[in-house]
Amino acid sequence: MIKIDNISFSYDAGHPVLNNVSLTVNKGESLGVIGPNGAGKTTLFHLLCGILSPDAGEIIINGKIIKNAEFNPETGLIFQNPDDQLFNISVFEDIAFGPVNMGLSKDEVLERVEQAMNITGISLLAERPPHHLSGGEKRMAAIASVIALKPELLIYDEPTSNLDMRGRRRVIDFINGAKHTSLIASHDMEFILETCGRVIIIDEGGIAADGETSLIMENKELMLHHGLESPHSLQHKKGSHVHR
């Protein structure tokens, strides 16, 4: 699904955020992306979406080379803050925005909006202004606005931020029940443990570890070295070896 081949990126010359990063993600896989603040997780996501362009290397999604500022409906990004994603007068209009701009017919737009609302469980919110919603409702509306595009790759940037327990559980259940490929960045290690079978640690411009989520996260020394804490549910276990 994704092939990242030796990409590098800097916001300022001489200070690379990502340096010769390579990664392969299989179709249908849920990959956790963890690391300290400023490690480049959001930058990686913006490169995958074509918001940014790598200084070197290339990104291929479903056999297509990703180019800067080129619309790719196969990839959907769910922003860390839903308020950055929801801007219309109603939830319905927000979800319909993408399909309308894809040039779909009115019937196709309606079908996609209704399907997205059913999947995320927000059909009763269709006529509500987004700014009147709770944090969890906003998060699901933002997810619906992306899945209405029917992307094969869904990228989540801190999907549990500002969510209560009920909203967090709803997002977990949605991700675990979905069939698309997922990339998920989060500081919520228990959330990553529940939703991702594989995880990578990004730090100091590269991928510091890549492997089975539980094996990496129960390695307290590795996690601590990269400014992370093992999930409480794994802290009773001994450290394990990981692929570096």
What tags apply to this protein structure?
244 residues; alpha/beta; Rossmann fold; six-stranded mixed sheet; four-stranded antiparallel sheet; 8 helices; 32% helix; globular; disordered C terminus
Task: Outline the structure in words.
By secondary structure, the chain is α/β, with parallel strands linked by helices. It folds into two domains: 1-74 and 153-158 and 180-244, Rossmann fold (3-Layer(aba) Sandwich), CATH 3.40.50; 76-150, no CATH class. It has helices at residues 41-48, 91-101, 106-120, 135-147, 165-177, 189-195, 213-217, 220-225; strands spanning 2-12, 15-25, 30-34, 56-61, 64-65, 75-78, 153-157, 181-185, 198-203, 206-212. Strands 6-7-8-3-9-10 form a six-stranded mixed β-sheet, sandwiched between helices. A hairpin with a 2-residue loop joins strand 4 (56-61) and strand 5. Helix 4 packs parallel to helix 5 (165-177). The chain is globular, with a radius of gyration of 18 Å.
List the helices and strands and how they pair.
Layout: E1 2-12, E2 15-25, E3 30-34, H1 41-48, E4 56-61, E5 64-65, E6 75-78, H2 91-101, H3 106-120, H4 135-147, E7 153-157, H5 165-177, E8 181-185, H6 189-195, E9 198-203, E10 206-212, H7 213-217, H8 220-225
Parallel strand pairs: 3-8, 3-9, 6-7, 7-8
Antiparallel strand pairs: 1-2, 1-4, 4-5, 9-10
Give the tally of structural domains: 2
Order of helices and strands: EEEHEEEHHHEHEHEEHH
Give the total of beta strands. 10
Average pLDDT, rounded to a whole number, is 91
Query: What helical percentage do the residues reach?
Result: 25-40%
Helix/strand/pairing category: alpha/beta
How many helices? The count is: 8
Strand portion: 25-35%
Q: Report low-confidence residues grouped into runs of 5 or more.
A: 239-244
The appropriate CATH architecture of the largest domain is: 3-Layer(aba) Sandwich
